[in-house]
Amino acid sequence: MTQTITQPEAARMIRESNGKLFSVTFVKRKDGSLRRMVARVAPKGGWKTGVTGQGMPYNPSDHYLIPLREFVTDPNRGQRGRVCNLNTSFKSIPVDGIVELRTGGKVFTVIPVSSRPSPF
Question: Does 102 map to a domain?
């Protein structure tokens, strides 16, 4: 059974997941297609990782984004696959594009709100 929540509630649940894996389905801003990913927030080592080691050049909340670390399932592990820490990348998802959230063994259908709340 799915529960219905709003986009700001979904964003709060993602931010409060404390590094646990979750699945999120959202609409990409670039081309409007649906995208599903398994990810977590607050990755080990923080956000100052990557190519330059400098971190992000912008504040994600100014653009209504949530920065995540995406985990890719390994297709060589059978039908269900398994989460592979080696195949990860840093992504940001738009809060106003979230349509479904799966966390803590529960499925949440996310409904949009008429206006964006303040990112603060």
Answer: yes
Does residue 31 lie within any of the structural domains?
yes
* Residue 119 located in a structural domain: no
Per-residue pLDDT for the chain (120 aa), expressed as one digit of tens each? Answer: 789 999 999 999 998 888 888 999 999 988 999 999 989 886 555 555 555 556 667 777 788 888 888 877 655 654 555 555 556 677 889 999 999 999 989 999 999 886 555 443
**pTM, whole model, 2 decimals?**
0.74
Minimal CA–CA distance to 24: which of 89, 109, 86, 118? 109
Structure tokens at 85: 């820490």
CA atoms of 13 and 106, how far apart (whole Å): 12
The DSSP annotation for 36-93 comes to EEEEESS-TT-SS-SSSSS--SS-GGGGTEEEEEEEEE-GGG-SS--EEEEEEEEEEE
